[in-house]
């Protein structure tokens, strides 16, 4: 058998550096209460990962409640402070689609946030968690009548309307139940941001929202304002946009805010309509690997507030009530996934610089508990979790157990050369868009989520059993 070659690998991507100490944790990828014990093992709030894996099995999502709450509070405080001078007030909506269960919905309420949902199922979670309707938002480009009705019955704080036909449907459903629907309009400002770049265009080619651009006559956005203000059972609160995800800079938000406020000013002068609320969506970036360097939330908030203040002054608009919708940036770094290593093999790859070795570490989950690498080419990092190692790091790829060669969890990481079957690996920043996107591919049961608080772990979503997998098959 080949023994892995240590040192920098020609197969490594440019952004990946050979770690001085592969046992070290890069703080920004981890919940603040995860540490490596002097004895070598990873622990969260005093609980060792071996204990967790033994008690709850693997793969396992391990969520730090304190970390989640801290990030939620940080968003609320940073935006409250940044926008305090404007005076319009701020609401922070946690984007439930990033990760949601009743327990998390309660933390969101405790911390003074609101909760965004985008389906009947997410509304039901919120309802069972006891979230007051006024604290809820409902999104979606294709809401069913039943979802709109459920939202109105719950008394949601707002429905974010996505199209002209939907405004008519909301009006007739609200009329039939004798209610007034509070509505925001989702507009597409022609700004698309992803990580370090954003593009600004006039026209939109996507399924969401009402365009600000009109070729002949009023734009879809303007028509929607007129339709919503004319509707007797709709109270039009304001306008909304969401420009992308995993964004690190504030320019994209700034351009979107400028365009939306410009639209507000136009609606005021043309139609005398005051759009009192401005929602700038979510998308705040987090660190998945050493290549990501998110800026402090407070800085981004201050930059956004400066742009809104300047535009409001320039356009002689009263300060709107602001809302934002972070998901990933609150729950993403709060969670890591624990996997157990099985098969280990080393392959020789013919690279540009001649043959080089890559180590494959197969774990007991994969694309069924984290499809983001497969779906979005997302990169993650990993560390050896049950012990420290003094073995030299080798270029490794963490792969799952599914019947697909693309089933990759961590494409490139330097891990100690002695990682072996039975070891535990921890992959940080898996709180957002992993569990919620999990599947039962190859009839794998979906993992549990445990929350850790005050040195104790408890299940907040139990693991599926094999019986669960068969429960919908009437012949089983
Ligand atoms: C997905 C989504 C969010 C949350 O995005 P994050 O990248 O998780 O912050 C917020 N608002 C809307 C409308 C979304 O679709």
From TrEMBL:
Residues where N6-(pyridoxal phosphate)lysine is found: 97
Annotated metabolic or biological route of this protein: Amino-acid biosynthesis; L-lysine biosynthesis via DAP pathway; L-lysine from DL-2,6-diaminopimelate: step 1/1
Q: What is catalysed by this protein?
A: meso-2,6-diaminopimelate + H(+) = L-lysine + CO2
User: Which residues does substrate bind?
Assistant: 328, 372, 376, 404, 433
GO molecular-function terms, A-Z: diaminopimelate decarboxylase activity
| Residues engaged in binding pyridoxal 5'-phosphate | 283, 325-328, 433
Key word Kinase present: no
The Orn/DAP/Arg decarboxylase 2 N-terminal domain sits at 67-331
Q: Which InterPro entries does this UniProt record tie to the protein?
A: Ala_racemase/Decarboxylase_C (IPR009006), DAP_deCOOHase_LysA (IPR002986), De-COase2_C (IPR022643), De-COase2_N (IPR022644), De-COase2_pyr-phos_BS (IPR022653), Orn/DAP/Arg_de-COase (IPR000183), PLP-binding_barrel (IPR029066)
The record's annotation in CDD domains points to: PLPDE_III_DapDC
Q: Which residues form the Orn/DAP/Arg decarboxylase 2 C-terminal domain?
A: 339-431
Q: Which domain of life is it from?
A: Bacteria
Question: What cofactor is needed?
Answer: pyridoxal 5'-phosphate
Is the keyword Amino-acid biosynthesis in the record?
yes
Enzyme type, top EC level: lyase
**Which PANTHER family does the entry link to?**
DIAMINOPIMELATE DECARBOXYLASE (PTHR43727), GROUP IV DECARBOXYLASE (PTHR43727:SF2)
Record text on subunit structure and interactions: Homodimer.
Xref: NCBIfam families: lysA (TIGR01048)
Name of the protein: Diaminopimelate decarboxylase
Q: Which organism was this protein described from?
A: Arthrobacter russicus
């Amino acid at each position: 058998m080949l023994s892995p070659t240590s040192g920098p690998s020609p197969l490594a991507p440019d952004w990946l550096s050979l770690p001085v100490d592969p046992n070290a944790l890069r703080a920004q990828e981890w919940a603040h209460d995860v540490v490596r014990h002097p004895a070598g093992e990873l622990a969260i709030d005093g609980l060792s990962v071996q204990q967790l894996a033994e008690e709850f099995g693997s793969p396992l999502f391990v969520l730090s409640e304190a970390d989640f709450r801290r990030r939620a509070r940080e968003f609320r405080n940073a935006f409250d402070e940044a926008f305090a001078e404007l005076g319009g007030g701020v609401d922070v909506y946690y984007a439930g689609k990033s990760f949601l269960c009743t327990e998390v919905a309660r933390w969101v309420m405790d911390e003074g946030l609101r909760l965004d949902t985008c389906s009947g199922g997410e509304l039901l979670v919120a309802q069972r968690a006891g979230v007051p309707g006024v604290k809820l938002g409902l999104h979606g480009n294709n809401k069913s009548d039943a979802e709109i009705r459920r939202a109105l019955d719950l008394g949601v704080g707002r429905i974010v309307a996505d199209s002209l036909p939907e405004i008519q449907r909301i009006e007739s459903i609200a009329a039939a139940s004798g209610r007034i629907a509070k509505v925001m309009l989702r507009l597409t400002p022609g700004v698309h941001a992803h990580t370090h770049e954003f593009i600004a265009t006039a026209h939109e080619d996507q399924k969401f929202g009402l365009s600000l651009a009109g070729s002949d006559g009023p734009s879809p956005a303007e028509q929607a304002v007129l339709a919503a203000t004319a509707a007797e059972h709709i109270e039009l609160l304001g306008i909304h946009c969401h420009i992308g995800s995993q964004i690190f800079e504030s320019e994209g938000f700034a351009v979107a805010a400028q365009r939306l406020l410009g639209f507000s000013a136009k609606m005021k002068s043309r139609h005398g309509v005051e759009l009192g609320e401005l929602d700038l969506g979510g998308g705040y970036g987090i660190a998945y690997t050493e290549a990501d360097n998110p800026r402090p939330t407070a800085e981004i908030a201050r930059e956004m507030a400066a742009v809104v203040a300047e535009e409001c002054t320039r356009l002689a608009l009263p300060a709107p009530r602001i809302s934002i919708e972070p998901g990933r940036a609150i729950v993403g770094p709060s969670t890591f996934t624990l996997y157990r290593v099985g098969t280990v093999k080393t392959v020789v790859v013919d690279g540009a610089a001649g043959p080089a070795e890559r180590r494959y570490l197969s774990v007991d989950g994969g694309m069924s508990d984290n499809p983001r690498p497969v779906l979005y080419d997302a990169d993650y990092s990993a560390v050896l979790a049950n012990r420290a190692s003094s073995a030299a790091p080798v270029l490794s790829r963490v792969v799952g157990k599914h019947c697909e060669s693309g089933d990759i969890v961590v494409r490139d990481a330097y891990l100690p050369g002695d990682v072996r079957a039975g070891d535990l690996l921890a992959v940080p920043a898996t709180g957002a868009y992993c569990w919620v996107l999990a599947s039962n591919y190859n009839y794998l049961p979906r993992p549990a989520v445990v929350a850790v608080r005050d040195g104790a772990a408890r299940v907040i979503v139990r693991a599926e059993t094999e019986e669960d997998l068969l429960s919908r098959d009437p012949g089983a």
